[in-house]
Design goal:
heterodimer, A: 767 residues, Aldehyde Oxidoreductase, domain 4, 19 helices, 28% helix, B: 166 residues, Ubiquitin-like (UB roll), DNA polymerase, domain 1, 2 domains, 5 helices, 37% helix, metal ion binding (chain B)
């Protein structure tokens, strides 16, 4: 990479979108109001698995203020991708807008539009439903039983969502034969939900030309456009999707939700705009969770800690529909080929339907589960072999040229640098040698743990992605970037503007970003897979580079110089070596000497493969042996994300990911009753997330250890990485504190107390 | 449905509106007064996204009936700036520290932080954590929010000290 003096990239410039967020002026979808707006509500099933024998909406329709009611009799019967990536194999086509069958407690079975939210709500109670109950399948074991009731007619058989994913490399039997130590264990995890602060919301409005304008809180506006057009039988230019500010998504807002189709259909039927806004409870019932899982892992090690073989079987619980299960199963299973290098692997990944709420895309996409297991077993091996846990990771850490989960050689590996940095900065050896007791509280045991991860930027090879950007220099020298990338809160638009300003040679403040209107901005695959900066950033850089040439060509005419002799710095075009000869970009673009003013446009398209970001997380926990409460006291996340575009925004991603990861590991679990399929904690009090009183000190370290040539100046993704390594780091620290191993999350106080009792019983049995 | 005549002062401006008796203050602010900066994250008092100041006290606007606010002075996020061209020190600090990501919780947290600093100009870390215990942020891990509140508190205290000296 050529030496480049950065002026804007790498600086924490003021995020352009934040001013609107902190003044209250930023418009989120729910803040929009249209004349004649109706309120839409969904009737949700209160049974996990059933046929609808009869549904009577006559009383609801007659209720004053109700404008329309839809059931499965009134909507197109089209199978669609619940998750709108029709261009890829990452999703399953298994959903109807409304069906005569209920597959989970909380599924929508009818929709009402009325003049007010209250009336729509009241009308829901007037809809009479008669069910024919079907036996419900409520967990992974039940779904895999030979005589299990089938939830779908489509699919490869049984309750499988897709055919099992098999990956085999090397010679596993030979690898185990060479091992001095073989470890085997079973692991499992609960059902964390993303819990974005903005409940799902959309507004549909049809105009006289049968064109649908659709405001929605989505990460994937062009996918929403595509799926809506497909199901409604419209050309793409008759569906306009708009999204301005978004209150988070964390992956889950990639899906096309049932309410979005229903909102469009209600608006069409009523010939009036309709808004549908989830209650917080509905974000649980009808949102998307991470996949609960069961995992079996067997690994072989030499005396020095070197891995010789790995065998893994994982089953992901998809819930009632496939959503992202194909992608999650493929990505998650493939992830176990790497992180810690191993030549001999045999992996089996499956996803099964159950009659529970839908699992979908969520930050860490299938990998949170596999690396949780692998990184805990790594610790077990270190202990058995008498090796330091950080040392065994260094011995096995993925290296340059190793085959990555994507099937390509790793270019730029940062894991070793992350581990080595953390060992020093966290004082790993000193802490691990310290007393576990807390002088302030005799019930406390302290412990320290490490976890590692790698995660790809972009969904390649599952999805062949494309990033696009259009950059325009206006007649006054100001710059407009048009991008389809969603701004779900990460600061992506600011990073893109920084990239454009840097490449073009103009002040950051002169670049503005237009986004969120599928009629205007270039096509975009959506904001997910930690790829916006990497993928769209590269496209924006390409567009800016081309625009720069065109602006310089125009300036050259005015300066009567060769374009090759010119350079553009901070909005001033200079003749190299002649500092007295310069014009501003405004002068270059404006009219002069018979040359009319002009605006210039350039576009960039980029089709990446994939880069990998890396992290090692070091944590300190304090376990209260009387209450069983685990307190995460300190976290040092050390991340390699290649070139950092906006340090504060990158840190923010990391710290927020850790918050969610701590929650997954210790307290968060959306619980479904295993006899009825009913949700037991669909609210923010009973679903317990780490909040201001719970968060540890986080000392974030970002290394630019391994820039990747695929990203702008070597930038890689950061969004998903931080949620992955924290879980096993905490579980390992808990073991360090109290000597009890946990193979599941969340690790509750009850688990801790039971574990301590078991341990005490075992040691007294030995005595 | 019978509507009740409600007179409140919002961000220094007298407002008069007709609201149904069951309407929450949050819905009245968002829908009747058109002040959509205050957010609805749960509507049951769990998340704090709708925090506003009513007669000097922070409240979850979703848990208060609009008619209960009869005659009250209310401050919402739209009234936090001292004037349209100047940000409140908390807003400045939120920008600098990256304390707002998706921003959906930010109006509620900024209002709660203002209450905190009004009562306790230089809060300790524990006091800041406790002060925000009713506000859910899911993006930031809170670290940058704590930093921003500390910074704003210091600057506001310094500005007050300066104005006293002057």
């Amino acid at each position: 990479m050529t030496k480049h003096e950065f002026r804007i990239v790498g600086k924490s410039v003021k995020r352009q979108d934040v001013i609107e967020k902190i003044t209250g002026e930023g418009r989120y979808t729910g803040d929009y109001h249209l004349p004649g707006l109706l309120s839409g509500k969904i009737k949700r099933a209160e049974i996990a698995h059933a046929r609808i024998r009869r549904i009577d909406v006559s009383r609801a329709l007659a209720y004053p203020g109700v404008k329309a009611v839809l059931t499965h009799h009134d909507v197109p019967r089209v199978l669609h991708y619940g998750s709108p990536h029709p261009r890829s194999a990452s999703c399953t086509m298994d959903q109807y807008i409304l069906d005569d069958r209920v597959r989970f407690w909380g599924e929508g079975i009818a929709a009402v539009a009325a003049v007010s939210e209250e009336i729509a709500d009241e009308a829901l109670d007037l809809i009479e439903v008669e069910y024919e109950p079907l036996p419900a399948v409520l967990d992974i074991d039940a779904a895999q039983a030979p005589d299990a009731p089938l939830i779908h007619d489509v699919g490869p058989g049984g309750n499988l969502v897709i055919p099992p994913v098999h990956i085999e490399r090397g010679d596993v039997e030979k690898g185990f034969a060479e091992a001095d130590l073989i470890l085997e264990g079973e692991f499992s995890g609960g059902r964390p939900v993303p819990t974005y602060m903005e409940p799902n919301v959309c507004i549909a409005d049809w105009d006289g030309s049968n064109k649908l304008t659709f405001w929605t809180s989505t990460q994937t506006s062009f996918m929403v456009r595509g799926a809506l057009a497909e199901v409604l039988g419209l050309p793409l230019n008759k569906v306009r999707v708009l999204v301005d500010h978004m209150g988070g998504g964390f992956g889950a807002k990639q899906d096309l939700f049932q309410h979005e189709f229903l909102c469009a259909l209600l608006a069409k039927k009523c010939r009036r705009p309709v808004k549908m806004e989830f209650t917080r409870r509905e974000t649980f019932l009808a949102g998307r969770s991470r996949h609960p899982f069961r995992l079996w892992l067997r690994q072989g090690f030499r005396k020095d800690g070197t891995l010789t073989a790995r065998e893994m079987k994982i089953v992901y619980e998809s819930g009632a529909y496939g959503s992202h299960s194909p992608g999650v199963t493929n990505v998650g299973t493939a992830s176990a080929t790497s992180l810690y290098r191993c030549e001999n692997v045999r992996l089996d990944g499956r996803a099964v339907y159950t009659n529970t709420p839908i699992a979908g895309a969520y930050r860490g996409y299938g990998v949170v589960q596999t690396y949780f297991a692998i990184d805990i077993q790594m610790d077990e091996a270190a202990e058995k072999l008498g090796i330091d846990p950080a040392g065994i990771r260094l011995r096995n850490a993925v290296r340059e040229g190793d085959i990555a989960p994507s099937g390509h050689p790793v270019v730029g590996y940062g894991l070793e640098a992350c581990i080595r940095h953390g060992i020093r900065a966290f004082d790993w050896a000193g802490k691990r040698a310290a007393d576990r007791h807390d002088p302030a509280n005799p019930a406390i045991r302290k412990g320290w743990g490490i976890g590692c991860e790698m995660h790809g930027s972009s969904a390649y090879p599952g999805i062949k992605e494309q990033g696009n950007a259009i950059v325009r220099m206006n007649e006054d020298g100001s710059v407009t970037l048009l991008t389809g990338a969603a701004g779900l809160g990460t600061g992506a638009h600011t990073a893109l503007a920084q990239i454009v300003a840097e490449e073009l040679g103009v002040p950051f403040e002169t670049v503005s970003v237009v986004h969120g209107d599928t009629d205007v901005v270039p096509w975009d695959i959506g904001a997910f897979a930690s790829h916006t900066t990497y993928l769209v950033g590269s496209a924006a850089k390409m567009a800016a580079a081309e625009l720069r040439q065109r602006v310089l060509a125009r300036a050259a005419e005015k300066l009567q110089e060769k374009p090759g002799h010119l350079e553009m710095v901070e909005g001033v075009i200079l003749v190299q070596g002649q500092p007295d000869r310069s014009i501003t970009v405004a002068e270059a673009m404006g009219p002069s000497r018979g040359i009319p003013a002009e605006h210039l446009v350039a576009s960039g398209s980029y089709m990446p493969t994939k880069s990998y970001s890396f992290a090692a997380h070091f944590v300190e926990v304090a376990v209260d042996t009387e209450t069983g409460i685990i307190e995460c006291r300190k976290v040092m996340p050390v991340h390699d994300v290649g070139r950092v575009i906006h340090p504060v925004a990158a840190q923010g991603q990391i710290e927020g990911g850790i918050q969610q990861g701590i929650g997954h590991t210790l307290t968060e679990d959306y619980v479904i009753d295993r006899t009825t399929g009913r949700s037991l904690n669909a609210g923010l009090v009973d679903y317990k997330m780490p909040l201001s009183m719970d968060m540890p000190d986080i000392e974030t370290v970002i290394l630019e250890a391994a820039p990747d040539p695929g990203g702008p100046w070597g930038a890689k993704g950061v969004g998903e990485d931080p949620i992955i390594a924290i879980g096993p780091a905490i579980a390992n620290a808990v073991y360090d504190a109290i000597g009890v191993r946990f193979h599941h999350y969340p690790i509750t106080p009850e688990d801790v107390l039971n574990g301590l009792r078991r341990k005490a019983a075992e040691s007294s049995a030995r005595d | 449905m019978n509507k009740i005549h409600l007179e409140i002062t919002v961000n220094g401006e007298a407002r008069s509106m007709m609201v149904e008796g069951h309407r929450s203050l949050l819905d009245a602010l968002r829908e009747e007064a058109g002040l959509t900066g205050t957010k609805k994250g749960c509507d049951v008092g769990d998340c704090g996204a709708c925090t506003v100041i009513v007669d000097g006290r922070p409240v979850n606007a979703c848990l208060m009936l609009a008619v209960e606010a009869q005659g009250a002075e209310i401050l919402t996020i739209e009234g936090l700036q001292p004037d349209p061209d100047t940000l409140h020190p908390l807003q400045e600090a939120f920008m600098e520290h990256g304390a707002s990501q998706c921003g959906f919780c930010s109006p509620g947290i900024l209002i709660m932080a203002k209450c905190l600093l009004d009562r306790n100009p230089l809060p300790s870390d524990e006091e800041i954590r406790f002060g925000l215990s009713g506000n859910i942020c899911r993006c930031t891990g809170y670290t940058k929010i704590f930093d921003a509140i500390r910074t704003a508190g210091r600057r506001m205290a310094a500005a007050r000290a300066q104005s006293v000296e002057a």
